[in-house]
């Protein structure tokens, strides 16, 4: 019964997170034009521009170059194009980022996609309920809609390597140890 309760709690947290992202998606700025009221709008534009240009790039486990990369390599590369250093793995990125209840385009979203119970996937929030990520399933970098059961059930939380935003999509969940709540 306790396992069922944890699964239900995790689903509720993920549902809140996705509802917040999608509910504000129509109000969010476009991925290539983050709000000019944001002091980090240039960095966000560079991050998203780099990620957008990589759509279609092959997925390569451990890769971090335009010839092929994995999810955390995509994040590290896109952020480097904005002059921002981030750790290499999704767990390290989750631990080092500033947890956010509200994400803006260019911020990171973390997921538990393996059975290990720890953060195992990261994507870049692109605004309007979408993210750019390196997909091992499709073997390519893709832009996907977050309004699917797959992402809703696996979302852990959001983080930024920029100053915390004042507005954006609401994010719930997350823990400093790389393990999702519940």
Descriptive report:
By secondary structure, the protein is an alpha+beta fold. It has one domain (2-170): Alpha-Beta Complex (endopeptidase fold (from Nostoc punctiforme)), CATH 3.90.1720. 32% of the residues lie in helices and 22% in strands. It is built from 5 helices and 10 strands; from the N terminus they run ααββααββββββαββ. A 6-stranded antiparallel β-sheet has the order 3-9-5-6-7-8, sandwiched between helices. The chain has a two-stranded antiparallel ribbon with strand order 1-2. Strand 1 and strand 2 (68-69) form a beta hairpin. The two termini are 14 Å apart.
How many domains in all? 1
Q: Biggest β-sheet, characterized? A: 6 strands, antiparallel
Q: What's the alpha carbon Rg, rounded to whole Å?
A: 15 Å
Mean pLDDT: 81
Helix content: 25-40%
For the biggest β-sheet, the strand order reads 3-9-5-6-7-8
Give the key terms.
two-stranded antiparallel sheet; 22% strand; disordered N terminus; 182 residues; alpha+beta; 5 helices
In short:
The protein is built from five helices and ten strands; from the N terminus they run ααββααββββββαββ.
């Amino acid at each position: 019964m306790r396992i069922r309760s944890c699964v239900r709690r995790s689903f509720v947290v993920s549902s809140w997170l996705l509802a917040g992202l999608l509910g504000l998606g129509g109000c969010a700025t476009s991925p290539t034009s983050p709000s000019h009221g944001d002091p980090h709008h240039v960095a966000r534009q560079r991050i998203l521009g780099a990620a957008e240009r990589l759509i279609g790039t092959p997925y390569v486990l451990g890769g971090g170059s335009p010839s092929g990369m994995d999810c955390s390599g995509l994040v590290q590369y896109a952020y480097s194009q904005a002059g921002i250093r981030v750790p290499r793995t999704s767990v390290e990125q989750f631990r080092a980022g500033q947890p956010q209840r509200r994400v803006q385009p260019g911020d990171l979203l973390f997921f538990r996609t393996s059975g290990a119970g720890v953060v195992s996937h990261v994507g870049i929030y692109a605004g309007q309920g979408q993210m750019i990520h390196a997909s091992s399933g499709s073997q390519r970098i893709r832009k996907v809609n977050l309004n699917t059961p797959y992402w809703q059930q696996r979302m852990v939380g959001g983080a930024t390597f920029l100053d915390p935003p004042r507005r954006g999509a609401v994010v719930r969940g997350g823990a400093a140890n790389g393990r999702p709540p519940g």
